[in-house]
Amino acid sequence: MTREQTPLEPDTKDWTWVLDRPCDECGFEASAYDRPAIPRAFRQNAHVWFALLADPAAGERSRPDRWSTLEYACHVHDVHQIYHDRVSQMLAEDDPLFDNWDQDSSAEQGRYADQLPSIIGPTLVAAAYAIGDLYDSVPPLSWQRPGRRSDGHTFTIESLARYQLHDVVHHLHDVRGAARSATIRAYDVSAADYLEGTRELPATVAAAIGRFAGMVSQGGRVLEIGSGSGRDAAALERAGLFVRRTDITAAFVEILRSGGHRADLVDPLYDDLADPAAPGTPYDGIWADASLLHVDRDDLPTVLTRLARATRRGGTLFVSVKEGDGEDWSTHGNVTTPRFFTFWRDEPLRSVMEAAGWSVREVLRSEGRDGEQWLEVLATRAS
Length: 383
Fold this sequence. Notes:
- By secondary structure, the protein is an alpha/beta fold.
- 40% of the residues lie in helices and 17% in strands.
- Strand 6, helix 11 and strand 7 form a beta-alpha-beta unit.
- Helix 1 runs antiparallel to helix 4, helix 2 runs parallel beside helix 4 and helix 2 packs antiparallel against helix 5.
């Protein structure tokens, strides 16, 4: 991380193509949003930025030539204000011509890097709610009112709303490096609520444990990635397996320890995965139920390779992730503070796992309690 700054290369690309097909970078699909969902999406997006700005490192650039989370948040705040002005014009005038907006000049004049996260967070949320309220107020027959950019591209209020939504969603993709620490913080502050909401073992998870245990010998040693409340670990032990509980969230580790269990704070992307209680002994299995879905797409190959190296040849891996495209943030469920999710499809997930040293045995689909679709993968470590 660095506070060193170099001038950013101006973004001169024409992004209007995202109105016609999914974004190649962030996965945003404009057509996936019903019109009434658009204002809600702006408000949800703002709360994610608010959570990201709680990071003490929000003002640090990961690279000198890339904006920090704080600078991106300042830009998103200004995007909301600019589009509020444009939509207001479209409602008041017939086919208005928008004033040019130089976002790089705004960043320099607004001294984005010198702003305070504690101030930008609330003002960004207020600006997002203001544009959301404006879109909510658009009469049904006015959504097709036009407006023009200086380059001649014509928008309707509806297409402008979708174009703006891609802008702020895409910038969350730009700062996805901060997603990891934000997700950990979310679980830390909501650990007790998560524990209370996940006591019951779903039938789909119980069935997966049965299949997994059938592939791991009785008494086999299992590394659990993301133990959370410890619910799955208890079921795995009832199935005759020995489980090493680990989690990246300190609050969960403390809960497990207070319950009399040995538990370790382990980040599967960086930390040593070997069991200190059994030096040099590989695991017979890895259990990762609804945990690796928080790993960035670019990091999952590394995590899976590290898990393979920690497992004996022929050892078993279980992974469950949400099915879908792109990435998103959740602000509902047992944890209401924003958490980052990466979605996967069957074939890309198989490819990543096999390249990391796993032989996929089966990929099953299941439905979560809120109707979301899951992929459940059982694999063995290849030779």
